Amino acid sequence: MSAKTDPHPARKWEDLELGETTRSDPVTVTEEDMLAFATRYDPQYFHSDPEAAKDSLFGELIASGIYTAALWRILDHSVNGDVDWVCGVQWDEVRWRKAVRAGDVLTACSEVISKRPSKSRPGVGLVVLAHHVENQDGAVVFSFTSTDLVYRRDTS
C-alpha cells in the first residue's frame, strides 16, 4: 500500500520568489509510449502509424503535442510538486516549437515571472510562470506561460 500524498504541501505563495527557476530530471521518450498515447488520444497517422508517418512532412513518427504537454506535466510536478497549488487558471503563448521523436531526452524548466495576491480570494495568490521543455540538444520543443492559484499562509 502506498503512502498518501499530502494534499497541502509546505511551500505557499509567500515562498515563491520572482526569478525562481526549476529544472527537472530528464526523461527519454520511447516509441512504445508515443504510440500508446497516440493510439488512445491522438490517432493522426504521423503519431500512430510508423509506416504511414514516413510519407508525412516529418518523415517519421513524431510525438503528439498533447503527449509532450502530458510529459511536461509529469516532469514539472517532480520539481514543483512541493508547492501548495490550488489550480491552474490559464495558459498563454502555447507553442510546439520542434517535433519530439523517439529517443529524444526531455527536460522541463520553469521560472516565476510575476505574482500578486488575489483581490477576490484572500487565501490565495496568483503566480505566472514561464515554462519550457527542451531536448537533449537544448532546443525548446514546447513552451507556454501559466497563471496559477497558490494557497497562502493563514491570512486571518
Task: Please write out the topology.
Blueprint: E1 21-23, E2 27-28, H1 31-41, H2 45-48, H3 50-53, H4 65-80, E3 85-96, E4 105-117, E5 124-134, E6 140-151
Polypeptide structure, described:
It is a single chain. The protein is α+β, with helices and mostly antiparallel strands and 156 residues long. The chain has a single domain (13-151), classed as Thiol Ester Dehydrase, Chain A (Roll). It is built from four helices and six strands; from the N terminus they run E-E-H-H-H-H-E-E-E-E. The protein has helices at 31-41, 45-48, 50-53, 65-80, and strands at residues 21-23, 27-28, 85-96, 105-117, 124-134, 140-151. Strands 1, 2, 3, 4, 5 and 6 form a six-stranded antiparallel beta sheet that branches. A hairpin with a 6-residue loop joins strand 4 and strand 5. The longest helix is centred in the middle third of the chain and has 16 residues, at 65-80. It is elongated and about 60 Å long. The N and C termini lie far apart (38 Å). The relative contact order is 0.23. The mean pLDDT is 94.
Distance between the termini: 38 Å
Domain count: the total is 1
Helix count, DSSP H or I runs of 4 or more residues: 4
Q: Report the mean per-residue pLDDT as an integer.
A: 94
CATH superfamily: Hotdog Thioesterase
Task: Pick out the low-confidence regions.
Answer: none
Q: Largest sheet, if any?
A: 6 strands, antiparallel
Q: Strand content of the residues, in percent?
A: 25-35%
User: Radius of gyration over alpha carbons?
Assistant: 18 Å
Shape: elongated
**Fraction of residues in helix:** 10-25%
- Number of DSSP strand runs: 6
> What's the CATH topology name?
Thiol Ester Dehydrase, Chain A
Second rung of CATH, namely the architecture = Roll
